[in-house]
Write a structure and sequence with these properties.
This protein is an all-alpha fold and 124 residues long. It has one domain. It contains six helices and no strands. Helix 1 packs antiparallel against helix 3 and helix 1 packs across helix 5. The N and C termini lie close together (11 Å).
Length: 124
């Protein structure tokens, strides 16, 4: 992977991670909903769309797509999709350090295996 590919990968990962944080923080502002009928679903959608963090998340999704498409001009999809697993590690770290979520040791071990897998993909 050349420098340009790494830059596009990095930007994609940052956008994707920030998008998930924005969506999580937006979801935390919503009340519990029982989506049992169309009216409840539409009400929930309307309440969701009134949260600015949701719109920030949408912008970050679009930015992530642009960087993803750019990355795909440099590397094969089978490499890009495996290296994209770094997003799991970033979200894991952000969940712990920023969102203050509890992390079970088995999830930490699984994340270590993901990092090992990405290393092996990049090495080969």
């Amino acid at each position: 992977m050349n420098l340009a590919a790494f830059i596009f990968l990095f930007l994609h990962e940052i956008c994707s991670t920030a998008e998930q944080v924005a969506f999580k923080k937006a979801a935390d502002r919503l009340e519990d909903h029982h989506l049992s009928n169309l009216r409840d679903i539409l009400s929930f959608a309307w309440q969701t769309l009134k949260i600015p963090l949701v719109w920030l998340g949408f912008v970050l999704v679009a930015g992530g797509w642009v960087f993803w498409f750019a990355l795909l001009t440099y590397v094969d999809l089978n490499v890009a999709i495996l290296v994209d697993s770094l997003q799991y590690i970033l979200i894991f770290a952000v969940s712990y350090f920023i969102l203050k979520e509890r992390i079970h040791w088995t999830r930490a071990l699984g994340s270590a295996f993901v990092m090992l897998g990405v290393f092996l993909v990049l090495k080969g």
